[in-house]
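Lecture 7 notes: from sequence to structure.
We start with the chain below.
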Amino acid sequence: MMDYNVMRLPELNFLKPNEQTTFRKLVEEIAECNGAIEELRIYEEKNDRNCLLLSDDEVDRIRSEYKIKLNSVLGEIMDIAQTCASQLFVFESYGIDVQKLFEKYAEDLNLIELENQIIFQVKDGCRYIHFSPNDITAGLEKTMNCIILSMGRIAQLGKFTGDNGEVPVIDRETSNIKYVYELFQIIQNCFNLLDSIQNKYHINIEKLFDEHVDKLVKKGYCKLS
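Predicted structure tokens for the same chain:
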């Protein structure tokens, strides 16, 4: 019985993603997540008042509305992690040994003991991912800044490989490895944030992971075996 949280990110086997479409999807998901975070921030500011002066019904209403907005943010965070997983499946289709790269990534960062890592175990059409949280201070703004920084590094890779006409300074293999590492880092940041919010608001993170997979199946993006 596993005593830690395992994120489930299925392969979207009813879609046909490639490196370019998945990158654009990741940009889209980050923009949507920023929008959800902004709505949450505005709501926090609007209701930043002394709750001792409010009726119980009013407090319950604010809590209920806040939970809906927070859940929207969590769903967008899951979508960002999902898109990164989809990109990893794409790289695997190119023959890249993503599992081996992850093991080196985890070892370099000393995340947790490797025997507990099931990052690239695929079962019933789902990729099972566990990151040991390595930042207990993760918050919405800090996490999004880290994700955007990783996206900038990914976007730069085309420059370094000469895709924009400049003299290449790295080869395609090196570029792909750097790309995969940034995807690991984005998923790590997503996991850090979810763990932090779970501890702060006592959300059911396992329920969140299950609902994410159910949503993708119902949308017809994938079918679990």
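Points to note: Helices lie at 19-46, 56-93, 98-109, 140-160, 172-201, 205-218. The CA atoms of residues 22 and 87 lie 6 Å apart.
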